[in-house]
Amino acid sequence: MLAKVNCAAVNGLSVIPVSVEVNATKGMNNVFMVGLPDNAVRESRMRVFSALSNSKFHLSSLNVTINFAPADVRKEGSGYDLPLAIGLLAATKLVETTLLPDTVLVGELGLDGSVRPVRGILPMAIEARKRGYRRFVVPADNVREAAVVNRLEVYGVETLKEVVDFLNGKGGPLPTIINTREEFFAAREQTDCDFADVKGQESVKRAFEVAAAGGHNLLLVGSPGCGKSMMAKRLPSILPPLSPAESLETTQIHSIAGKLGHNVSLITQRPFRSPHHTISDVALIGGGSSLQPGEISLAHNGVLFLDELPEFSRGALETLRQPLEDRVITISRAKYTATLPCSFQLVASMNPCPCGYYNHPTHRCTCTPGQIHRYMSKISGPLLDRIDIQVEVTPVPLEDLAKAPTGESSATIRSRVVGAREVQRLRFASEPGTHCNARMTASQLERYARPDEAGLRALADAMKRFDLSARAYERILKVARTIADLDGSEQVSYPHVAEAIGYRNLDRQSWGE
Predict the structure, then answer these.
(1) Residues 234, 193 contacting (CB under 8 angstroms)
(2) Do the bridges between strand 108-109 and strand 115-116 make them parallel or antiparallel, or are there none, so unpaired?
(3) Hey, where are the domains in the chain?
(4) Domain covering 2-167 in this structure, CATH number
(5) The pLDDT of residue 513 is above 70
(6) What are the residue ranges of helices labelled H in 98-201?
(7) pTM: predicted TM-score of the whole model, two decimal places
(8) Other beta carbons within 10 Å of 242
(9) Per residue in 452-468, is it b (16+ CB within 10 Å) or e — as a string?
(10) Residue 379 has what pLDDT?
């Protein structure tokens, strides 16, 4: 008898419907698999037959042909175990087929018949609803993730026998219903880190506020122990809260990567990813023999923090140039081509020199000018060109730390950031390709960020006096526009330009000399 069971394959963020076709006839226990299954899928034969046996489903001697359609798409992973087991039972008339045409099944099987979680459940659920399926049967550990999708009955199961009883109309699980909007809005305001914990460093905190308000990339240069990492971790707490659409997109990426926590339905906080400087190019941008989102995609709609920036390999840093510009990454390999979103805000930190104490107020630097120059030159001009704000961070003296008052809370700073972002949303409402000042084009700069006469003179004077590079010009105007938005000013004026000029330290040709 022939049986068909619906499941799905994930490619990037897209999902391809897969039909598991099982044809069983009496024979000598031969099993043939076709349809481009990988090793994990081929190994499922032993898991499935053991799970069936330990769940008290005994099959007679059979010749079984299994086809994973469409046959030209490679099938990877262990999520085909459950549909394959149900297909075998349906082909041998141990399971009713009435519900199968409107049902999608996904899950890995243990040898004892337990159903284990798999990756990519959320995008599968979205595709199942889009294609008009009524039911989605998933492992119990994945059920809250899938139940985010409305107008789809989601059933969480723990054992193979539960699935069989459900399909045969003998009880089984009830559909899981989650009030996702209520849970989402209740959880997204929570934060573990707060800028109120940061004492002193008012000018640097101001730079973080400007970066958050305009979506600008930020580079911190300072000696060890001055608080660079501490402040970077608090940037998500002052960014605008995730919207439901952003949350859904972010959760899909983490679902595919298998990074969602236990019993999590939606990601409610902006991601903060901080890879080690020994990370490989593939781990950073994604890919591999089996597609895996990289750190830049896991940071989508959040923050990518690169600590000790010059210690990253040159190749890894150069791979960031195209994602920073296009906000997507296309990964092409022999077996697949996939496009993943990676719209993140880059925050990087570094020491000013190899010993770490150049420009330190009390500690003597032991580096020569040549060593400092070589250290700084590890960061290429094209990458530096994509970082709008560059600030020096100096340590706060110990006696000042004890006397420093508690700083502004993240909630207070965020309220100003949200106000500035709303101004930008209205400004670019008719220009869908731009939603914050950091993304402005040259023509938009001319329309929205042209300074007054005093501001133009200050900018021209700074270009000459500090020997600023030509690439700094547009960056200064973008940051000045953001500062004006925080100030509630329609016109970019001299104070806004002057502050923006102060955020271009590394463009000064005298650095390290």
Answers:
(1) yes
(2) antiparallel
(3) 2-167, 187-432, 440-513
(4) 3.30.230.10
(5) no
(6) 121-130, 143-146, 160-167, 180-187
(7) 0.90
(8) 23
(9) eeebeebbeebbeebeb
(10) 87
Pick from 461, 468, 477: nearest CA to 509: 468
Whether the CB-CB separation of 298 and 257 falls below 8 Å is answered with yes
- Residues of the chain with pLDDT > 90, as a percent, come to 65
Cα–Cα distance, 253 to 292 (Å, whole number): 10
Give, in words, the CATH class of 187-432: alpha beta
In Å, how far from its chain's centre is CA 189?
19
Terminal Cα distance for the chain, rounded: 81
CA angle 217, 218, 224 (to 5 degrees): 150
Which helix (H) or strand (E) element contains residue 474? Answer: helix 472-486
The CATH number that domain 440-513 falls under is 1.10.8
The amino acid at 453: E
The whole-angstrom separation of Cα 450 and Cα 478 is 10
pLDDT digits (tens, 9 = 90+) for 341-368: 999 999 999 998 999 888 888 888 999 9
Residue 284, phi then psi, degrees to nearest 5: -80, -45
- 128-155: pLDDT as tens digits: 999 999 999 999 999 999 999 989 999 9
Lowest-pLDDT choice from 27-36, 150-159, 181-190? 181-190
